Amino acid sequence: MTLINLAFKSIINRKASVLLTLFTIAISVMLLLSIERVRQEAKQSFSSTISGTDLIVGARTGDIQLLLSSVFRIGHANNGLSWQSYEYIKAQKGVAWTIPISLGDSHKGFSVLGSDENYFEHYRYGSKQTLSFEHGRPYHNAQEVVLGSEVAKQLHYHLGQEIVVAHGMGNTSFHHHDDNPLVIVGILKPTGTPVDKTLHVPLKAIEQMHGPKHTGTHIIGRKSHNDAHDHDHDHDHDHDHDHDHDHHSHNYEALNSQPGDLVGKPKQITAFLMGFDSPLYTLQVRRNINTYQPEALSAIMPGVTLRELWGMLDIVEKILMLFSGVVVLISLLGMLTTLLSSLNQRRRELAILRSVGARPHHIFALMTSEAVLITALGCMVGLALFYSLILIGKGVLQAQFGISITLSMLSSYELLLLGVIMVSGTFIGAIPAVRAYFYSLNDGMSIKV
Known about the structure:
By secondary structure, this protein is α+β, with helices and mostly antiparallel strands. The chain has helices spanning 2-13, 15-47, 63-70, 83-90, 118-122, 149-155, 203-210, 225-234, 237-255, 280-290, 302-312, 314-345, 347-355, 360-401, 412-437, 441-445; strands spanning 55-59, 81-82, 95-107, 110-115, 124-125, 129-130, 133-136, 144-147, 162-163, 166-167, 182-188, 198-202, 268-269, 271-276, 297-300. Strand 5 (124-125) and strand 6 form a beta hairpin. Keywords: Cell membrane, Membrane, Transmembrane, Transmembrane helix.
């Protein structure tokens, strides 16, 4: 205890240089833990994008390409699969539910996904969490759309507002489906997944947009967008006021619509998700789909393919860890430099300690204790900075990158990292301690110029 008190007072006596070293260690600990926590949470968020789905089925293509296009809305599917094949596979033994997916359109850079009522009932993410609504309800007919939370937030959309979908993916499109405007009837709660950046419409809406005849027929009793446009040109201001009143009435009417046909008669879809009554059916049905003769199809298990995809990103993970390790190493070398540079200034202090009875091993223990104290204090301050950073930045990470960071206790791996830092700090502190151990009493009492 006396040795610890002496080491603590020695640190206080050299507080300027010690604070600088301590701050360097704290910053490196904060960076190391932050990178590790973000890496782990990103991996968790990545793998929890889809949950509870046993198979994803699409036209014959690579497993990862099918996963990226159908779940992450990245890239494009080469081909679609026929509705007849979907109906046939859907009717197989053991199939509990299916979610058809039709992609290919967009709205101001956000993907448009066509599906049916099963999407809101069976789609799961995270720990088998269901989709829930922040405002409104699911779509009831082909003139309604449900927005992901990020779409509504970035575009400042609200319930009852009318939007137009564009043909093709991307921010720029030269073909807009102006004759099939959609009314916003629901806004989903944030999920931290690609669902947040997706507009959801019924399959029938996709069919109407791409059908041979754009009828422009919408909600019963409601005029088409083009009719409304002409109507604006043919009437004076007072009549425009009446039209606006009718417009809002129709949107209100859309929000109170009754459930109708959501599927229509599609010829093709992009892919579909499947869930089974028992996991035992998964491999059997997957084999049957991959050998399906009428059409070349691929069935992938999303969990397996997600692990393959994360394995491809392993190099990025290693680079991040290498960067963290280098930061910690630099901070410890900084502590070594500080201790070595102060050692010459402390020769007289150490000689006085030897003169009052301190043995060489006492000097060694004192120097090592100082290094351990500085490292331990640096780790504690780094932990405080780490939790402060998580508290401040978790909202930004969730909103911008969909990475959900939890303010939880340190994991066993993070504690192991701190342990490695402590051991490294002790080892680094032992280097000047060994030099001090061999200093003679006469060397310390004589002033070198």
